[in-house]
Design a protein that fits this description.
- The structure is a single chain.
- The protein is an alpha/beta fold and 240 residues long.
- It has seven helices and eleven strands.
- It has a seven-stranded mixed β-sheet with strand order 7-6-5-8-9-11-10.
- A hairpin with a 4-residue loop joins strand 10 (211-221) and strand 11.
- It is globular.
Length: 240
């Protein structure tokens, strides 16, 4: 490995080879953390704007009260950390299928992990988000069927580009209805996507939720010397 990179951990998982590495960006001098699955980058701390906005946009839709939130997909923890920065959040469950990623946070190998571990409102749950939804038991192993004010998901690359083909049913009306059943009235579902807004998926959301919109989040991309963009889908239930 190049001296510019330090491999912090490597694990063999059912999904393939999972690597956590750290490097220093030569242009800014910033310390960058990256998670790779096989040869594919899952997360980089060089690009976090959309992950942060995913949480901010979702919680901005909700009234001020003690909010109960689920984040599907832990990654480098930026979405979860942003949720906990909101003063009205009362509890947060973060669900991730890779126990190795949870362990990296708990061990402090990932910077955000220290803040997540220190916050009594936050609980990291090892589980397959999609399988837990299909089970009908929900995301809180201690309280089956528990409902939440917001469910925020950043797992697949987009509704069309999946990490695993078995996730596809989540993006269909039946899967979205299962998710809606775990939201409080007026609750919000927020989804990160690496692709531009997809009108067909937005229409599918509209068959389940009363308010749907897609927000484009732009951010500088120094690797390409231009701006990149992600999409955040926001879907809200009727409050009555």
């Amino acid at each position: 490995m190049s001296a510019r990179f330090q491999e912090l951990d490597w694990r063999q998982t059912p999904l393939g080879e999972l690597t956590l590495r750290q490097r220093r960006d030569p242009s800014s001098g910033r310390e960058i953390h990256e998670i790779k699955l096989n040869d594919e980058f899952l997360m980089s701390s060089m690009f976090t704007v959309a992950e942060i906005e995913l949480a901010r946009l979702a919680l901005a839709e909700l009234p001020r009260k003690p909010l109960d939130v689920v984040v599907g997909g832990l990654g480098l923890g930026y979405t979860a950390h942003t949720v906990l920065e909101h003063p009205d959040v009362g509890s947060l469950l973060v669900v991730d299928a890779l126990n190795e990623v949870i362990e990296w946070h708990q061990q402090g190998l990932i910077p955000a992990g220290k803040a997540l571990a220190a916050d009594d409102r936050c609980r990291l749950v090892h589980g397959d988000f999609f399988a837990m939804l299909r089970s009908g038991q929900g995301f809180d192993p201690t309280t089956p069927g528990r409902r939440f004010d917001a469910i925020i998901v950043d797992i697949d690359h987009s509704p069309r580009h999946l990490l695993h083909p078995g996730n596809a049913d989540f993006y269909l009306p039946e899967g979205l209805r299962r998710l809606a059943e775990l939201l409080q009235p007026g609750g919000v579902f927020a989804l990160w996507s690496n692709d531009p807004p997809d009108d067909e998926f937005a229409a599918t959301l509209s068959a389940v939720f009363t308010e749907v919109r897609a927000e484009i989040v732009s951010f500088p991309n120094p690797l390409q010397d231009n701006d990149s963009a992600n999409t955040v889908y926001l879907a809200k239930l009727d409050p009555s």
